[in-house]
């Protein structure tokens, strides 16, 4: 397939963000993009969702921060980041050279924090803000907002009232009713929804009888969470009108196709970046090939096209 | 020091042997990485049996750029290293590397000090500086000091110490380090091993006024400085990543 065909097949627009492909990187798995510059042409991907940013610098959690699981991994990094001021003064000017869509993931410990972060980022040329109300590893990571629809709506409104940029709200799967959470943030003005953050998990060392992770529990990601993520994207897609960015264990174009069929308008690659640092390029190429093989003209022809068998009356 | 560009490469297992109980030496054909790797750098290997989402970080031990091969030593500590140990000649891995900052190469006659598996990355330095280094190696017992034969072609003097006294002097590397310093003049000390040992050696090297570098080990996912699994505190309060800023640091940067 020639490049022009590939570009036409994958080009999309996500709440005003022009993207060369509908494939982003998941926050926390791709640094600020520059770490992967040896492996990925950063200007050719949909965009980079950078590491979670907070008002003040955070050193993250102590002890072991990652461990492998069957078909996945657990992490408890704890939102280590240099803080928004360093991001604005040092990181953002540095990564501008890569000509990529930069989406900044933000976390706060109060509704006011989220508003302040949005205000500081509004004055920049970033493409969008992703609101993290779902980090399972720190109290200040917003999980308190991510499990209560009223609090999630309050955070969304605070961010929306401080920025004109597209606001994406990243939801936690650690809730009983994901549709209720999605509707709450949509009603509060979210322009898009990211689904899913990690699932809370834990691992115990049977030699020492101690938890493997320094923070005892951590966020589960990788192929093992994919069915949960696909199910949640499908449920939410039927209930909201805003676009969904699907993520959770995508390792291949085939995995990504499932998310698009379920109703995602874009997807993000997370854990797979650790397995193969250039995988996002391969997944984009293979997705274009899939669309071409199915005689589709653009990724839009795939979104939400799941065929649910009709029940007999 | 400019670092070589990082890459991924399909690597073929050329040889694998158990050199001590539970400890393996694997030789990989990985020409592009072998060509540019610097002493003290490491690779992240991907095992293709479907069981591992994460790569495993392993130090480059010996490098033969002419043949396009390098070796790695590892101890079986979990499912990843166990699966690695099952690979035989001709099977493939994917190698991501060379990663991190290696050892400073400006020393003329350095003393290498390694404990246990810490002797692996130091071997790459001994080899690169052929004939320039002395080695002080420590292990639990004589069995753990199988390293002697691998170091022999590359070093001048070898000093041995074991916890149980079954080979060399009884005690730790820190026990005989002061005596070794009296016998020769070194312009640098390079250490890799348990943290308590590295701290002890670093302190004594500082007292003796000899520059000291240490090679650290941490769990890591990406190996590229992105996932922040391997963050450490620097003595000046900054945060750095073992994978990208290390694994080799000046001792005073990391040990107060």
What does this 3D model show about the protein?
The complex is a heterodimer of chains A (313) and B (256). With 313 residues, chain A is an alpha/beta fold. Chain A has helices at residues 3-10, 84-95, 111-122, 143-146, 149-160, 178-187, 226-237, 253-262, 272-275, 279-293, and strands spanning 12-14, 17-19, 23-25, 47-53, 66-69, 72-75, 102-106, 128-132, 167-170, 192-195, 199-202, 204-205, 210-211, 217-221, 244-247, 266-269. The longest helix of chain A is centred in the last third of the chain and has 15 residues, at 279-293. The termini of chain A are far apart. The mean pLDDT of chain A is 95. Chain B is α/β, with parallel strands linked by helices and 256 residues long. Chain B folds into 2 domains: 7-99, Elongation Factor Tu (Ef-tu), domain 3, CATH 2.40.30.10; 111-215, Rossmann fold (3-Layer(aba) Sandwich), CATH 3.40.50. Chain B has a 7-stranded antiparallel beta sheet with strand order 4-3-7-1-2-6-5. A 7-stranded mixed beta sheet of chain B has the order 11-10-9-8-12-13-16, sandwiched between helices. Chain B has a two-stranded antiparallel ribbon with strand order 14-15. Chain A binds chain B through residues 28-32, 35-36, 38-39, 51, 59-60, 64-68, 70-73, 75, 77, 80, 222-223, 271, 273-278, and chain B through 5-8, 46, 51-55, 79-80, 94, 96, 219-222, 224-231, 233, 239, 244.
Q: Can you give the helix content of chain A as a percent range?
A: 25-40%
CATH H-level name of chain A... which superfamily? Aldolase class I
Radius of gyration of CA atoms of chain A, rounded to a whole number: 18 Å
Main β-sheet description of chain B? 7 strands, antiparallel
User: What would you call the shape of chain B?
Assistant: globular
Q: Give the strand order of the largest sheet of chain A, numbering strands 1, 2, ... along the chain.
A: 3-4-7-8-9-10-15-16
Q: Strand fraction band of chain A?
A: 15-25%
Mean pLDDT of chain B: 96
Can you name the CATH architecture of the largest domain in chain B? 3-Layer(aba) Sandwich
Q: How many domains, in number, for the residues of chain B?
A: 2
Helix fraction of chain B by DSSP (H/I, runs of at least 4): 10-25%
Name the CATH homologous superfamily of the largest domain in chain B: Nucleotide-binding domain of ferredoxin-NADP reductase (FNR) module
Most extensive interface between two protein chains, with residue counts: A-B, 33 and 29 residues
CATH structural architecture of chain A: Alpha-Beta Barrel
Q: What Rg of chain B, in angstroms, do the CA atoms define?
A: 17 Å
Helix and strand sequence of chain A: HEEEEEEHEHEHHEHEEEEEHEHEHH
Number of DSSP helical runs of chain A: 10
């Amino acid at each position: 397939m020639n490049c022009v065909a590939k570009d036409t097949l994958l080009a999309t627009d996500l709440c005003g963000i022009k993207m060369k492909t509908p494939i982003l990187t998941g926050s926390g798995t791709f640094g600020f993009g520059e770490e992967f510059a040896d492996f990925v042409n950063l200007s050719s991907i949909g965009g980079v969702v950078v590491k979670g940013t907070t008002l003040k610098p955070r050193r993250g959690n102590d002890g072991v921060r990652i461990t492998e699981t069957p078909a996945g991994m657990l992490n408890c990094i704890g939102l280590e980041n240099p803080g928004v001021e360093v991001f604005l003064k040092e990181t953002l000017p540095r990564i501008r050279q890569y000509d990529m869509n930069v989406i900044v993931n933000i976390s706060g410990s109060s509704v006011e924090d989220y508003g302040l972060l949005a205000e500081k980022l509004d004055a920049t040329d970033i493409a969008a803000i992703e609101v993290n109300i779902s980090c399972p590893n720190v109290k200040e990571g917003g999980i308190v907002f991510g499990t209560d629809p009223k609090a999630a709506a309050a955070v969304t409104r605070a961010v929306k009232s401080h920025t004109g940029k597209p606001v994406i709200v990243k939801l936690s799967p650690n809730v009983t009713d994901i549709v209720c959470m999605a509707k709450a943030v949509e009603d509060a003005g979210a322009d898009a929804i990211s689904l899913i953050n990690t699932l809370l998990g834990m691992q115990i060392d049977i030699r020492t009888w101690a938890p493997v992770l320094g923070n005892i529990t951590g966020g589960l990601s990788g192929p093992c969470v994919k069915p949960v993520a696909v199910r949640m994207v499908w449920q939410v897609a039927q209930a909201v009108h805003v676009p969904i960015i699907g993520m959770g264990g995508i390792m291949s174009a085939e995995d990504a196709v499932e998310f698009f069929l379920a109703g995602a308008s874009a997807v993000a690659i997370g854990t797979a970046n650790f397995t193969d640092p250039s995988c996002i390029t391969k997944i984009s190429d293979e997705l274009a090939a899939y669309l071409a093989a199915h005689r589709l003209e653009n990724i839009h022809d795939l979104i939400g096209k799941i065929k649910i068998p009709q029940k007999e009356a | 020091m400019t670092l070589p560009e990082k890459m991924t490469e399909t690597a073929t297992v050329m040889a694998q042997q158990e050199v001590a109980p539970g400890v393996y030496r694997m030789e990989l054909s990985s020409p592009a990485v072998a060509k540019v790797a610097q002493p003290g750098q490491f690779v992240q290997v991907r095992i293709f049996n479907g069981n591992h989402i994460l790569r495993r970080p392993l130090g480059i031990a010996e490098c033969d750029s002419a043949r396009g091969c390098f070796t790695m030593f590892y101890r079986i500590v979990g499912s990843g290293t166990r699966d690695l140990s099952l690979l035989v000649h001709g099977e493939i891995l994917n190698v991501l590397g060379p990663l991190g900052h290696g050892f400073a190469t400006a020393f003329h006659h350095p003393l290498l000090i390694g404990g246990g598996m810490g002797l692996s990355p130091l071997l790459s330095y001994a080899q690169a500086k052929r004939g320039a280094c002395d080695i002080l190696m420590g292990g639990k017992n004589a069995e753990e000091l199988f390293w002697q034969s691998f170091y022999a072609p590359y070093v001048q003097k070898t000093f041995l110490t074991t916890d149980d006294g079954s080979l060399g002097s009884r005690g730790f590397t820190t026990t005989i380090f002061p005596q070794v310093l009296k016998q020769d003049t070194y312009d640098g000390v390079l250490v890799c091993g348990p943290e308590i040992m590295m701290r002890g050696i670093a302190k004594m090297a500082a007292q003796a006024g000899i520059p000291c570098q240490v090679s650290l080990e941490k769990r890591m996912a990406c190996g590229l400085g992105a996932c922040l699994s391997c963050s450490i505190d620097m003595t000046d309060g900054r945060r750095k990543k073992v994978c990208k800023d290390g694994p080799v640091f000046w001792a005073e940067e990391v040990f107060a």
